[in-house]
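Take a record.
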Amino acid sequence: MKSINIGLLGCGTVGTGVARVLLENRDLIARRVGADLSLKKVADIDITTDRGIRFAEGVLTRDAAGVIDDPDIHIIVEMIGGLNIAKDFILKAIDRGKQIVTANKALLATCGNELVRAAQAKGVDLAFEASVGGCMPIIKSLRESLVGNRILAMTGILNGTCNYILSKISDDKTPYETALNDARKNGFAEADPTLDIEGHDTAHKLAIIASLAFGCHINLEDIYVEGITPITLLDIELAQEFGYRIKLLAIGKKTNGAVEARVHPTMIPFSNPLSNVNGSLNAITISGDMVGDMMLYGHGAGMLPTASAVVGDIADISRNLLTGSTGRIPLLAFQPGHMKKLPVLPIDEIITPYYFRFAAADRPGVLSKISGILGDHDISLKSVHQKGRKSEGSVPIVMLTHLARESRVQQALNEIYHLSVVTDKPVLVRIEDVDYED
């Protein structure tokens, strides 16, 4: 049986998982692939820590450049993370004619176009299934399974940290800070969770899958990003009273020749399967013109689920090497000459229903003032509720709107905020509900 040699760069949590899968399931993988996938070298700064794996003598090394230059290594697996060093190593490996596997979503979202061009010019494969959704085969579905579909929309819960926090607040009435600390204790949040809770991790993933789905290059800076920190227990409870749950969603849509690409807290109805995806789990619904709606669900992070996706990429590339079919599948799902330039719709131009919550003085005429300003900006109200939960002389006024344009909503809320009877900044949550009556 032919051997295909693998060089692993980075042996942190996921890198260790990759090594474990390759070593523990080596015979199983060989029977499925038709080749022995041999972990020839593992490069890491730290080669003394016990990772619970017995590496053969000489496998561990601090010399990443030497691994890349090794003529016997066929596939380089980048598990270092970050931007600069990882990018340099990948480009060097491509230049040496190595096949590449990575899970580095930040690098792909930021420099993916450059990496893809380099791989195409050299005729090597660049695989990145584990960059989005952990063990869920999102990339494979978009690049292969759904090749006969126009992708109309994607809506996903793609960050386990945020989903865990929102689930704890929703199900256990846990305060935000307590939920965040619980996420840290359980290994679902980093010591500094900013990238997750502010929505940037999800935006990285959306940039990748939007390119694949819509056949266009998505610049990360064009994606509207809003995190979960403004969401309170009160908003979650009120949303539930209306039949909704609040989730941090990645939303990608093809609309009138443009692409919507946005990440923000969103109210979705109980009837939406995504509303029941709780804890640290991830899920995504993909709408195609031929298949209708489909949903992928599973662990979006973690050592072994992510490693499973990485090894799946290694197996795919190994099969290509065995059959001489490297480059068989376009790296971005579309042939390079058929990628389009599509504008990303600015957030001000989206049209959707909204949830508003105002903290206002409990006195006559307040409701009519707020409603009047909304009407002046062509924002029609579907329902209005004034809750009897006083806080320092204020009461919450909650409104659901019909379809409204974001730019008009922001103008109206700014005007309302400056009313003397409004005591705090208005809260806005966008609504995604296919059955929403307008």
Summary: The mean pLDDT is 94. DSSP finds 14 helices and 18 strands in the chain. The chain has three domains: 3-134+303-338, 138-299, 347-431.
